[in-house]
Amino acid sequence: MTPDKYIKNYINGALIPASSGDYIDNINPAAGKVYSHLPDSDAEDVQIAVEAAERAFPEWSKMGAQKRFRILNRVADIIEQNLESFAHAESVDSGKPVAMSRSVDIPRAHDNIQFFATAIIHYASEAHHMEGTAFNFTLRQPIGVVGCISPWNLPLYLFTWKIAPALAAGNTVVAKPSEITPMTAYMLSKACSEAGMPPGVLNVVHGLGPKVGQAIVEHPKVKAISFTGGTNTGKKIAAIAAPMFKKLSLELGGKNPNIIFEDCDFDQMIVDTLRSSFSNNGQICLCGSRIYIQRSIYEKFKDEFVKRTQFLKVGDPFSSVTDLGSLVSKAHKEKVMSCLALAEVEGGKILCGGKSLEMKGEIKEGYFLSPAVIEGLPPNCRTNQEEIFGPVVTITPFDTEEEALEMANGTNYGLSATVWTKDVAKANRMAEKLQAGIVWVNCWLLRDLRTPFGGMKSSGVGREGGLEALRFFTEAKNVCQKY
Fold it and tell me: Which of 36, 281, 328, 451 could be a cystine partner for 26, CB 3.0 to 4.6 Å?
């Protein structure tokens, strides 16, 4: 399975261009050059997709979990069989190292589909007995046509994270991948066709957010919206969808704290903190961009962390020695660099990195930036309050547990947090009081697909993952039978 120069929409089981016939350039960010084109779709294409999904819903929803399991499992198998093709395409599209695409992104996409395909055949509803009177049982039924909108940072990983539970539960889907990284969603369309998925069950409409995403959100026949992306976009979606009484799952921004106590396993902590700071160039909503270190080990941490950051190799995504590839786009690189300039204005000292890198050969026009570590900023400055979503972290000392907790909770975000300590009681106290949807203790990005995932405050509404996802994509109906 290989990418094509002209990406197509996947509507009613067919690969077709946008109704307008227009295309948008798709840029390889490591090369800084156009390498393919995606449909410039609009509300007309969304309408056609919704109609196809409506027609497909009765058969798909009544097909039975076992048959849906078999079809979805075949899709997962095709991804696994074409791992290298998918990984190569993901890295060309996003600029991330192919080693990451090969070991993280594509395997997780496979696992997402396989997990929910299997989960639906084990899914059980509740029953409640009213002694001597009646019994109640809960029917969980698919909603109908649902909309799934995914971001550019983990393209196939997060695209499948949404569509897999929706399809497994018996819904039909109109989905929009990011226009910045569309290729693997296009390849997934081919995999679905090859696996024998009935026409109209999954419809993938490519294009811009204001034209395609908004049309999906606004469409009266789309009963639920699952969105991952920026907080401001989430607000706009909620403003449209809430008055229409659509179900909403919004996984939004993060400004995640990484809290390091003096009694941590320093060697393991420093390895994982480097990962949590700069994996995928910091373009993961779960990256720990605010690092708080107990004062007694602050200088030791700073010296070692800066040294290791400087050793990270930024370069060609397809080189075996590359740690960090390019940022995803020219506009995003410019945004991150403006954030670095702001940090200096706010009084921050850039200890290393933050420089635009000039490359040679085929990647000389790419969007490369050295990872940056900043110190000396107060907790309430914009750099420590606003999501940067790039290879930029701040480091700040603290003295007491209470001080660390106050700084960690001192933003409008509440997606994730990390705590490093050997003291189990301290870890549990912190986990209980941290305002975050997920708390990692002595690890980072360790995920069990059965567990709920989502954020608090401005980091989102609702939960994804495991049974939470299947609950979201179904309507609960109580049946009470008297005897």
Answer: 36
Task: Given the residues 90, 179, 251, 464, select the one marked as catalytic.
Answer: 251
Q: What CATH number corresponds to the domain at position 196?
A: 3.40.605.10
Q: How many domains does the chain have?
A: 2
For 84-99, how does the pLDDT look when each residue is reduced to its tens digit (9 = 90+)? 999 999 999 999 999 9
| Residue 217, domain member (yes or no) | yes
Structural domain including 219 reads: 9-252+459-482
Q: How many CA atoms lie within 13 A of 400 on its CB side?
A: 3
Which pLDDT tens digit goes with each residue over 432-472?
999 999 999 999 999 999 999 999 999 999 999 999 999 99
- In which band, very low, low, confident or very high, does the pLDDT at 2 lie, cut at 50, 70 and 90? confident
Instruction: Please return the burial class of 379, using the count of CB atoms within 10 Å of its CB with bins 0-12, 13-18 and 19+.
Output: middle
CB 404 within 8 A of CB 297: no
334 is annotated as an active-site residue:
no
Q: Is 339 tagged catalytic?
A: no
Tell whether 63 and 189 lie within a shared domain: yes
Kindly name the residue from 148, 264, 285, 287 that is annotated as catalytic.
Answer: 285
Claim to verify: residue 237 and residue 321 sit in the same structural domain: no
What pLDDT, in 10s, does the model give residues 252-309? 999 999 999 999 999 999 999 999 999 999 999 999 999 999 999 999 999 999 999 9
